[in-house]
Amino acid sequence: MTRTMATIGTKWKPIIIYTLGLKKQRFGLIHAKMELISKKILTEQLKELEEDGIVKREAFKEMPPRVEYSLTNKGLELLPILNMLTEWNAKHQQGQ
């Protein structure tokens, strides 16, 4: 559990993974969906997720430069877990 939390246990990483979901997205769209995160923190978190093999960064050599982010197979394996956490929260929010 300690190792898992070290990999995805920050405030933003699970939200980034959940936001990416099953589709490739550009930085601006990810940031727009996550209004409360600064661009600096989003950049740092994406870089760490890439280093951990959870996110793939694809840069296109065109003008203006374009970069797309997507989940790797390792990252895709986390989606059902995050969906279960979301469902758990919804179930227990109703009881309050």
Automatic annotation (TrEMBL):
Pfam families: HxlR (PF01638). Residues 1-96 form the HTH hxlR-type domain. It comes from the Bacteria. Signal peptide: none annotated. GO terms for molecular function: DNA binding. Keywords: DNA-binding, Transcription, Transcription regulation. InterPro entries: HTH_HxlR (IPR002577), WH-like_DNA-bd_sf (IPR036388), WH_DNA-bd_sf (IPR036390). The keyword tRNA-binding does not apply. PROSITE patterns: HTH_HXLR. The keyword DNA-binding applies. PANTHER family: TRANSCRIPTIONAL REGULATOR, TRANSCRIPTIONAL REGULATOR, MARR FAMILY. This is Transcriptional regulator, hxlr family protein. It comes from Pedobacter ginsenosidimutans.
